[in-house]
Design brief:
Number of helices: 11
Shape: elongated
Distance between the termini: 50 Å
Radius of gyration: 23 Å
Number of domains: 2
Strand content: 5-15%
Largest sheet: 3 strands, antiparallel
Helix content: 40-55%
Low-confidence stretches: 1-8, 135-184, 195-308
Order of helices and strands: HEEHHHHHHHHEEEHH
Length: 308
DNA sequence: AATTGACCCAACCGCCAGTTG
DNA sequence: GCAACTGGCGGTTGGGTCAAT
């Protein structure tokens, strides 16, 4: 009975096994690849003495047996990266995995579906669009909702600029549809996980202000603490001003693979990503995004899917 | 102690794109 | 140009585990 359960298709009159891999099968696959490399996956099973289809062998290797795979729980930094990249590329798990060393797309996908998606819903954010599900947000305060609206504006501007920059590299591509407004999820995420309040990232006033100049990694800078009356604070200036009232000193780093501002004092002041800053259209920003997109392992195919 | 339900994750399936003959 | 083959990817499933009742 149990054998029939995992009996798969036949190939050359050999019944292919399905279901969980035994330690012996793992050993056979490992030792074969160690000696010969995987070569053609289609012919590997017979050469390695496995009654599996090549596809099953490939999946077992790429998702489990590969030596460069880190297993275990995702840390907060990895979760941050997943959320930011998901906001940018959607369910392109392989592209996201390319940015997370030693993690597989399958693992990230599972983690997203079982943990991150639920947490986002709990935060009142749609895990697909990264938009608030409705007005019953995780933040009960009206001012927090106002902040989220600012976030959406800002993220929208960022996506537009990003699309322009990418198009500049792929001029043959047709103009993209306007990107959907999207939140700075990392920011909301960190506020959620640290118990902080949503008070970050957006310039004051109801209109979207010009994004800040683009800082160099490691550059020390200051962030003006602007209050729009609704409590929203924003990155206003890469300042050479003296740190004074309402100016938060901090540093830009790229430890997550994208620019990110961290205040010098931990405070509840300005924390979170630096995505807004790259909306500035200048050569520095363009160069950054050029390399960044490479890092995320975009292929031409991905880009065309994004903008066609 | 037994049952139930939620959670986790390995593995499968189907689709698509690229390559080859 | 076309069909067959191959590899890669994302969606889904189902079995194991564990906590709650």
């Amino acid at each position: 009975m149990e054998n029939e359960r995992y009996e798969g298709r036949r190939c050359n009159n050999v019944v292919l096994k399905k279901g969980p891999w035994s330690p012996l099968e793992d050993q056979k696959l490992l030792s074969y690849i160690h000696l010969h490399g995987h070569g053609s996956w289609a012919s590997l099973p017979s050469k390695a003495g496995l009654k599996r289809c090549g596809k099953s062998c490939r999946l077992r290797w790429t998702n489990y047996l590969r030596p460069d795979i880190k297993r275990g729980k995702f840390n907060l930094q990895e979760e941050d990266t997943i959320i930011q990249l998901h906001a940018l590329v959607g369910n392109r798990w392989s592209a996201i995995a390319a940015h997370l060393p030693k993690r597989t797309g399958n693992e990230i996908k599972n983690h997203w579906n079982t943990n991150l998606k639920k947490k986002m819903i709990k935060m009142g954010l749609d895990p697909v669009t990264h938009m608030p599900i409705n007005h019953r947000l995780g933040c009960a305060q009206p001012k927090d909702f106002a902040n989220l609206c600012h976030m959406a504006q800002w993220e929208s501007a960022r996506l537009e600029a990003e699309a322009r920059l990418v198009r500049r590299q792929f001029t043959a591509l047709p103009p993209p549809p306007p990107p959907p407004p999207c939140f700075d999820v990392l920011n909301a995420w960190e506020c959620e996980t640290t118990g902080g309040t949503l008070n970050c990232f957006f310039a004051g006033g109801s209109s979207l202000q010009s994004p800040a100049p683009f800082p160099a990694f490691g550059e020390e800078l200051a962030v003006e603490d602007v209050d729009d009356g609704g409590g929203a604070k924003g990155i206003m200036d890469i300042s050479e001003e003296l740190y004074g009232d309402g100016v938060t000193p901090g540093v830009v780093d790229d430890s997550l693979g994208f620019p990110r501002f961290t205040p010098a004092d931990d405070g509840n002041a300005v924390v979170g990503g630096w995505w807004g800053s790259v909306a500035r259209e200048d050569d520095v920003a363009a160069d950054y995004w050029g390399s960044s997109l490479d890092d995320v392992a975009f292929s031409n195919r991905d880009l065309r899917k994004l903008f066609c």
